[in-house]
Amino acid sequence: MNKNKTNGETGQQRVTVESALTSAIVVPTLNAGDQFSRWIEAYERQTYKPDKIIIIDSSSDDDTVAKAIKAGFDVQIIKRKDFSHGGTRQAVVDMLTDFDIIIFLTQDAILADRNALCNVLSEFNDSKVGSVYGRQIPRLDAGPIETHARLFNYPVGSQVRSMKDIPKYGIKTAFCSNSFGAYRHSALMQVGGFPTDAILSEDTFLVSKMVLKGWKVVYAANASVYHSHPFNLRQEFRRYFDIGVFHSRASWIRREFGQADGEGLRFVKSELAYLSKKKPTAIPMALFRTGLKFAGFKLGELEGKVPNRIKKMLSSNSNFWDNESKSGKPVKE
């Protein structure tokens, strides 16, 4: 990171990053394709640059690595089968002991404004802040269902949440996303780092522990990326199966923060209201998707009763089940 203080502006807001903070960006990649050129261009337009940027590539078949090297990034290549959402990120964190702030982005999260990184980093001027995540806005060609999901989870107003807010926000208190999320290294390590055996939601796991240890989590709405997904029905089901698996195994999160049922109902009501104005004809499909997601989630919660070969078919992370089998952990065959 530049050692001089740097200012950035978004609308009428001016933010300042403490010059003493050092930072690194970590981006896992796999066949990032043409959009990686857009990612690099957006990064190069930033008013504030980190001290280091590391690309962790899972043996891409395309020119992702070549583009990253040309851009001057530090590239490390791992075997595709060795990637895991938490384990791979923690392996990099363990290498970055000299950095105060670690910023995670995904290859498809395109920085949407010049001050996005500056605005995220400025939140760490408060020494009580352990984690910050930015706003995700829908792709320019996103459909109404995809658009609403981003508008619901990433509103226009910033938030600062802590343990005292659990009665108000419930499980949403610990919401975060590694598509554009940053962590204070000392806070991250205090709670044991990312889980190495989580199927996904490693960000939620980590931030939940941070909040319970007294750290603040900040949603910085003035730091945005273009990031949304046009999931098909199969992808939607598989993703929610994995989410169900995660919550089944990390049941302590719901014990500490509360069930997600109320938040799910609020989402459905908001979606129906949004679609009734924007595209009423999409309501039947939205309701069907809701049922599909609920079924996937509930089945994921029951994964302990499902044979491993079936779980591989239902999951979006088949490598997870292969690696779990090889690790010697008990699985139902």
Report on this structure.
The chain has 333 residues and is α/β, with parallel strands linked by helices. The protein has two domains: 7-226, Spore Coat Polysaccharide Biosynthesis Protein SpsA, Chain A, CATH 3.90.550.10; 233-326, no CATH class. It has 14 helices and eleven strands. It has helices at 35-44, 64-70, 87-93, 116-122, 144-153, 166-169, 185-190, 202-212, 233-249, 251-257, 261-278, 283-301, 308-314, 318-326, and strands spanning 7-10, 13-16, 23-29, 52-57, 74-77, 101-105, 110-111, 129-137, 159-161, 180-184, 216-226. The strands form two sheets. Strands 3, 4, 5, 6, 7, 8, 9, 10 and 11 form a nine-stranded mixed sheet that branches. Strand 4, helix 2 (64-70) and strand 5 form a beta-alpha-beta unit. The chain is globular and about 50 Å long. The model is unreliable at 1-14 (pLDDT under 50).
Continuous helix count? 14
CATH architecture label name of the largest domain: Alpha-Beta Complex
End-to-end C-alpha gap: 49 Å
Radius of gyration over all CA atoms, rounded: 20 Å
> What is the percentage of strand-forming residues?
15-25%
What form results from the Cα inertia axes?
globular
Query: What value does the average pLDDT take?
Result: 91
Low-confidence stretches: 1-14
Structural class: alpha/beta
Name the CATH class of the largest domain: Alpha Beta
For the sheet with most strands, the description reads:
9 strands, mixed
How many domains? The number is: 2
Considering the protein shown, what is the CATH homologous superfamily of the largest domain? Answer: Spore Coat Polysaccharide Biosynthesis Protein SpsA, Chain A
Element-level helix/strand string: EEEHEHEHEEHEHEHEHHEHHHHHH
In the CATH hierarchy, the third-tier topology of the largest domain is known as Spore Coat Polysaccharide Biosynthesis Protein SpsA, Chain A
Multimerization status: single chain
Percentage of residues assigned to helices: 40-55%
**Strand segment tally:** 11
